[in-house]
Amino acid sequence: MFRVQPLAAAAAIALPCAAVAAPETDPFNPALGVILDGRYADFDRDPEAYELPGFMLGGEAGPGESGFALGHTELIADANVDDLFYGRLTVAVHEHDGETEVETEEAYGETLGLGHGLTARFGRFFSGIGYLNDRHPHAWDFVDAPLVYRGLFGDQLRDDGVQVRWVAPTPVFLQFGAELTQGDRFPAAGGDADAAAAFVKVGGDVGISHSWQAGLSWWGADVAGREGGGHGHDAAHHGPAFTGDSEVAGVDFVWKWAPRGNPARRNFKLQFEWFQRDEDGTLSENGSVVGSYDGTQSGWYAQAVYQFRRGWRVGLRYDRLHADNSGTNAEALAEAGLDEEGHTPERASVMVDYARSETSRLRLQYNQDRSYPETDRQVLVQYVLSLGAHGAHRF
C-alpha cells in the first residue's frame, strides 16, 4: 500500500489523490481504482520530429501528440493478500498514432510485517531512484516529465526484478534501498539480469511548518543492443545500437512548507533533481560494429509549486541538459541521436491548476521548449479524475 513517510509536516502535504483506508486483507475483494487522464496539446513544431541532441531517445520519450488525446489512464487493483504479502496491479491505457495501447505498468508483490524496518518488493515496478521516478504521471505537478527523465530514462525507469528497502531506527527518516532487475527495458534494453540500482533517502521536519527530504541514487547496467535515435517514440526502432557499460548517478532534494503543518489553504514545494550518465562501449548496425562510443550526459531541473488558496496552485519549472559524446564514427553518432550539435537543450514551463477535490484536477501549462535550436512554444491542457479507491501518495 502507499505509505506516507514519517515526516509530520510532510504527511500533510500529500499530492492530490483520493485518500482512502488501507485495502482489506481479502484477496477476493481488492480495492479498485481508475485514473482518467486526458489532454489537449498545441505545438509550434511537429512533435514527430522531436529530438534531444546528444541523447539516444527511447521508451516513451517525446512531447506527445497534437490535439485532443488520451493521456496516461490507469486501472489499479491492490489488496493485502494475507498477513505476509500485499499485491498491486496497474494497467496503463494510452493512444499512439491513433491506436489504443494497453500495457502492464506495475505488477508486484510486497512483504508485510518483516520487522526491523525491512520491506521487499518483487515483480514489475518503478525504480526507487531519484524523487519523481516512482510516482505515477497523474501525481506529477506538471503535465510532462522533466527533460533529464525524458533523455535518460524514456520518461520513467521501470523493470522486472526485486527491490529491498530498509528504514533505519534513527531520529530522522533514513532509508536505504537496492534493486536487481532484468534489464530488458530502456535504457538497459537487453541487459539480461545485469541491471542494478541503489538509493538512500534522508529527511525530517523543521519545526511544525517545514519538512524536507534529500536523496542519492545510482543505477548501472551492462547494456546489450540498446536502440535509439533522435525522434520520440519511433526512436527505439531506428539508428545504431549501443552495447557497453552504462552508469547513472543522481541527487534529489525536496522542501515543503505549510502553515503549522496544515496544507488545506496554502502550501509550497521546492523540488530539484540532477542526474549524470557515463557510458563506454560500441555502436553497431545490422549486427556489425560501426564505431566506438564514449559519452557523458547530464541534466537537472528545478521547480516550485505554490498553492495560494484552496484548490488553486501555480508552478514554475526550468530544465537544462548537457552532453559530451565522442566516438570513431561521427555519422553513427548522429544517427543514434548522440551528436550534441553544439546545442544545450533547455526548457522553461509555467502551469496553473485547480483541484475541485482530492479526486479531480484541471491544469493549464505553457512550455518554451528549446530542446532543439528552434524554440517550440507548447500549450498543454490536462484533466485528471480519480474514480474508486486510491491510496495517499508518499512525501
What characteristics describe this protein?
3 helices; 4% helix; Porin; mainly beta; 16-stranded antiparallel β-barrel; disordered N terminus
Total beta strands = 17
User: Helical proportion?
Assistant: under 10%
Reading off the top of the CATH hierarchy, the class is best stated as: Mainly Beta
How many domains, in number, for the residues?
1
User: How many whole angstroms does the radius of gyration measure?
Assistant: 21 Å
As for the CATH topology, it is: Porin
Q: What oligomeric state is this?
A: single chain
Write the topology of this structure.
Blueprint: H1 8-11, E1 31-43, E2 67-70, E3 73-80, E4 85-96, E5 99-111, E6 118-126, H2 147-153, E7 158-167, E8 173-181, E9 195-206, E10 210-227, E11 241-257, E12 267-285, E13 288-309, E14 312-327, H3 330-335, E15 346-357, E16 360-370, E17 376-388
Antiparallel strand pairs: 1-2, 1-3, 1-17, 3-4, 4-5, 5-6, 6-7, 7-8, 8-9, 9-10, 10-11, 11-12, 12-13, 13-14, 14-15, 15-16, 16-17
Can you describe this structure?
The chain is mainly beta. 4% of the residues lie in helices and 55% in strands. The chain contains 3 helices and 17 strands. It has helices at residues 8-11, 147-153, 330-335; strands spanning 31-43, 67-70, 73-80, 85-96, 99-111, 118-126, 158-167, 173-181, 195-206, 210-227, 241-257, 267-285, 288-309, 312-327, 346-357, 360-370, 376-388. A 16-stranded antiparallel β-barrel has the order 1-3-4-5-6-7-8-9-10-11-12-13-14-15-16-17.
Q: What's the short story on this structure?
A:
By secondary structure, this protein is mainly β. It has helices spanning about 10, 145-155, 330-335; strands spanning about 30-45, 65-70, 75-80, 85-95, 100-110, 120-125, 160-165, 175-180, 195-205, 210-225, 240-255, 265-285, 290-310, 310-325, 345-355, 360-370, 375-390. It has a 16-stranded antiparallel beta barrel with strand order 1-3-4-5-6-7-8-9-10-11-12-13-14-15-16-17.
